[in-house]
Amino acid sequence: MYEILKKRQLHDTVTLMEVHAPLVARKALAGQFIILRVDEDGERVPFTIADYDRTRGSITIIFQKVGATTKRLDALKEGDFIADFAGPLGNPSEFDGLSGKKVAIIGGGLGTAIAYPQAKALYNLGADVDIIVGFRSKELFILLDELKSVCSNLIVVTDDGSNGKKGFTTDALKTQLENGVRYDHVIAIGPLAMMHAVCVLTKPYSISTTVSLNPIMIDGTGMCGGCRVTVGGETKFACVDGPEFDGHKVDFEEAIQRSHMYKDAEGECMERHACRLL
Ligand SMILES: Cc1cc2nc3c(=O)[nH]c(=O)nc-3n(C[C@H](O)[C@H](O)[C@H](O)COP(=O)(O)OP(=O)(O)OC[C@H]3O[C@@H](n4cnc5c(N)ncnc54)[C@H](O)[C@@H]3O)c2cc1C
Ligand code: FES
Question: The CATH number of the domain where 147 resides is what?
Fold first, then answer.
């Protein structure tokens, strides 16, 4: 059992939880994820390691309440326990050769939480990091102070213009590129459509671009095939071969289509659990 050491509401639908999991914290690196079960009857759900503290033996996750499991998780309080917390899973981010280079990290919505450990690791490595984050509106801002502390330039955009510049992250990246900012590498984390659009932008400039894919995962061990994606014409499993891939090689059309596969089942599950969540 894994104790919840800290719980902080970042806003109405997004929660930060620090969980005591010393064995996971000992090996965790940026880019990896965990799979948890809230209780013994629970579904296995993956979450990115947003931060880790080897001294406290803790892992921080940041999650959005989107369905039955995330709502059950959010109902837990500090001092409560999570039944299973397995990890670290997946491959750590590869930052070879990026020390001293100019890197742009693009985070869309909750993708910002996943972008933060990447930015922190690259900044500590000596890269010159620009961060571009986008939210639907200012009420959904998360982690801006944390992001500011690990980059030389933080650009915030909102879809509705309620704060920061109005527009999408891709508009801000396009402006940077058109203004002559030369990035050696771009990392994009967020909705599939956003990551795809970033790759379309960076390709003509031949800027290598990494994306972090979050397909449906079931076992997290490469056995079930749930997280299958096509990269460079080859079948890959995001849980063991990723979750990060060369964005210019990802078949985004297929990934987007597969991401809608379980919509009906998720809706039914939400209805079944509704009484327990209220
Ligand atoms: C590697 C990886 C890292 C992730 N990191 C984060 C994170 O840091 N924070 C966060 O809020 N979310 C993250 N997710 C997504 C998160 O796992 C889902 O939001 C969660 O499983 C939703 O479960 P639910 O029962 O609350 O919602 P449901 O109603 O079951 O599903 C809502 C949506 O969540 C996604 N989803 C559902 N089940 C899974 C599953 N088993 N695997 C992957 N996606 C699923 C689907 O897109 C679905 O449409 C990550 C997913 C992956 C694969
Ligand atoms: S989650 Fe089963 S193969 Fe990746």
Answer: 3.40.50.80
Number of structural domains (the chain) is 2
> Is-contact 231 243, C-beta < 8 A?
no
| 33 and 69 share one domain | yes
CB-defined site of ligand 1, < 6 Å: 33, 43, 45-48, 61-64, 66-70, 110, 113-114, 214-217, 243, 259, 266, 269-270
What is the C-alpha to C-alpha distance for residues 257 and 266, in angstroms, rounded to an integer? 16
Give the position, in ligand 2's atom list, of the atom nearest the Cα of 238: 4
Residue 136 sits in the same domain as residue 76: no
Ligand whose nearest atom lies closest to the CA of 242: 1
The whole model's pTM is what? 0.88
Residues 120 and 47 in one domain: no
How does pLDDT run across 82-113, given as a tens digit for each residue? 999 999 999 999 999 999 999 999 999 888 88
Range of the domain at 120: 102-259
Residue nearest to atom 5 of ligand 1 (CA): 47
Counting atoms of ligand 1 from 1, which one is nearest the CA of 239?
Answer: 1
Q: How many residues belong to the chain?
A: 278
277 or 76, which is more confident: 76
Out of 39, 47, 219, give the residue to mutate to test ligand 1, the one with the largest number of ligand atoms within 8 Å of its CB: 47
Q: Tens digit of pLDDT for each residue in 4-55?
A: 999 999 888 899 999 999 999 999 998 999 999 999 989 999 999 999 999 9
- Full DSSP string of 29-65: -TT-EEEEESSTTPPPEEEE--EEETTTTEEEEEEE-
265 token code pair: 């089942």
Nearest residue (by CA) to ligand 1, atom 34, is 66
Q: Do the domain assignments include residue 95?
A: no
For residue 271, being part of any structural domain is answered with: no
